[in-house]
Here is the input.
Amino acid sequence: MFDTISVPDQALRSRVTTTVMGTPRGRSFGRLIDTAAWIAACQGNEAPRPFSQARTLVVAGDHGIATRGVSVFSPTDSVTQAEEILAGGGPIQTWARMAGSTVRLIDVSLDHEAWGGERVSRSCGAIDVEDAMTPEQLQRAILIGKGLIDAEVDGGADIIIPADLGVGNTTVAAAVFGALTRTEPVVAVGRGSGIDDEAWKTKVAVVRDAMFRVRDVRDDVYQVLTKISSPCFVVLTSMIAQAAVRRTPVIIDGAFPAVAAYAAERLAPGTKEWLIAGQLTPEPCHLVSLQALDLTPLLALDMYTGQGTGAVAALPLINTAAQLIADEMEAAGESS
Here is the structure.
């Protein structure tokens, strides 16, 4: 499904680190050094450059399990939030304006009457009792994700922020994560949108039943995605993998994109080398997915807003790290 992924220039990454660490105040920059060195390696530059063409792609979709009461939001809230974003509102639009990123909403599977080149279905199957999608819909979702990234990169994007919107997203993330990593539902499931104990028990039961349905195929990532993820999850997974194929850095936000990134690494090895974690949420599957990808989040705001807000919040820090280290390297060169 995906072309071979090349690794960012590790020799260049090492040179940047060595140069900065050799300056009088280099060590004082802490983890910003590695962040900037990673940027330089991804860009193929001797010194890192701030990103100027950030693209936030909010992939929206609904889930059949949203009617089970696994969220404080009602199933219809996904469409409402999507309309808010399209009108220029919502948390992601605020963050993006401040951080300098464009925002695009992709309606993959929201539960309303619509069609277009980026649509796969109207909502999807309730994963505790039925498949999320057909194999044909999986294929379509993968192609949509790849096409979205190709269009953005060809249009000049230099960093991608894959974002999510959909009631029930963390339930799907926990189910996919639990199945692929053989993690018990009670360990994988968090509070999501801020649910109470009774709703958490329901969410655990949904995840448990979904994981049981794929117990015999859990080593086949495509089968797991077909049966217990969702079209919007697959589009997100495909986007992340294709961005790595196109040698374009990606900022990961919350649990849904993090588990999608984990799935992308399973489908397209080497994807993780092009990822940076923007933030950490309270969701258990988020933390463990980042650990599996060898990623340390830049921010820990306990924010579970979704829509890519945590990743966009980290963008100014990432750009500042690039400029700070570039300036330090230039000063070191002038003094030598």
